[in-house]
Amino acid sequence: MRIATFNILHGRSPDDGRVDVDRLAAAVKSLDADVLGLQEVDRDQPRSLGADLTSVAAEAMGAPEHQFVAALSGTPGGTWMAATGEEQPGSASYGIALLSRYPVVSWRVVRLPALRTSVPLWSTWTHRPFMARDEPRVAVAAVLDGPFGEFTVCNTHLSFIPGWNALQLRRLVRSLTGTREPLVLLGDLNMAPAQAAKVTGMRSIASAATFPAPRPTRQIDHVLVRGAGLRATGPAEAVQLPLSDHRALVVSCDAG
C-alpha cells in the first residue's frame, strides 16, 4: 500500500506560473498512491481554469472514493469567507481532498479553530516583520477498508502561524479519539517532525525534506501513525513534480 501527501499549490507550477490540469493529472498518476491527501486544492476557481482538481486527481490515480472539503468559499487573496459545507454547487472554493482506491466505510469532516486576528511574524524573504492573517483550516478523515483490514486516514493543512498550528493539531488529534486504528494522519502540518511527533504522540513513518521543492531543507509535510498494524516497508520518497512549491511525500506500508 502506497500512501502520499502533496500540497499542490492549486495545481500551479512556479516555473511558468500556469495551472495545467493535464500536468496535474500526470503528476498524480506518477505517484501511484493508493491513498492520497491533497492540500491547497481548488474547485471552480478562475485561476485554475474552473476545474474540479479533486476529480482530476481521482481520475488520474484511479480512485473511486474521494472527497473535497472546502476551507474557504470565494477567492483566496480576494473576497472570501470561511466555508460551512453548505456552499452552492459551482461556487468557487478552496481546501483539501482525500482520495482512496480502497472502499470508504465512513467520512468525517473536522473544522479547526480559526485565528481571528492578525499576528506579527518575521519574514525570511524581506528580513522584516509583517502582520500575518491566517485562513480557515479543516481536516477530512475516512475509515477505509484496506488490504490489511479497516483503518482511518485523516488529511489536513494546518496554519503557518507557529503555536496556533500546534493548537489546531492537538484539537484535531483529540477529535479523533476512539476512531478505528491504525490511524494515519497526513498533510501539510507547517511544523518540523519533532514538534509534530510531540504534539500528536504519534510516530512518523516518512522522513524526508519536502520544502521548498527545488532544494528542500525542511520537512513540513508528514505521514504519522498511531496504533499497531501498519509500518513502512522502506524509506519515504520526497518526489519533485513539475508543479507546486512542495515535494510530494510518499511511503509504502504493510501490516506490522
Structure class: alpha+beta
Q: Please summarize the sheet with the most strands.
A: 8 strands, mixed
Residue runs with pLDDT of under 50 for 5 or more positions: none
In N-to-C order, the SSE pattern is EHEHEEEEEEEEHEHEEEEE
In whole angstroms, how far apart are the ends? 12 Å
Mean pLDDT, nearest integer?
95
Describe the oligomeric state of these chains in a short phrase: single chain
Radius of gyration (Å): 17 Å
**Count of alpha/pi helices:** 4
Categorize the overall geometry. globular
Number of strands: 16
State which percent range the strand residues make up.
Answer: 35-45%
Q: Roughly what percent helix?
A: 10-25%
Can you describe this structure?
By secondary structure, the chain is of the alpha+beta class. The protein is 16% helix and 38% strand. The chain is built from 4 helices and 16 strands. The protein has helices at 21-31, 53-61, 164-175, 193-200; strands at 2-7, 35-43, 65-74, 80-82, 93-100, 104-111, 119-122, 129-132, 138-146, 149-157, 183-188, 203-204, 221-226, 231-232, 237-239, 248-254. Strands 1, 2, 3, 4, 5, 14, 15 and 16 form an 8-stranded mixed β-sheet that branches. A 6-stranded mixed β-sheet has the order 6-9-10-11-13-12, with helices on one face. A hairpin with an 8-residue loop joins strand 15 (237-239) and strand 16 (248-254). Helix 1 (21-31) crosses helix 2 and helix 3 crosses helix 4 (193-200). The two termini are 12 Å apart. The mean pLDDT is 95.
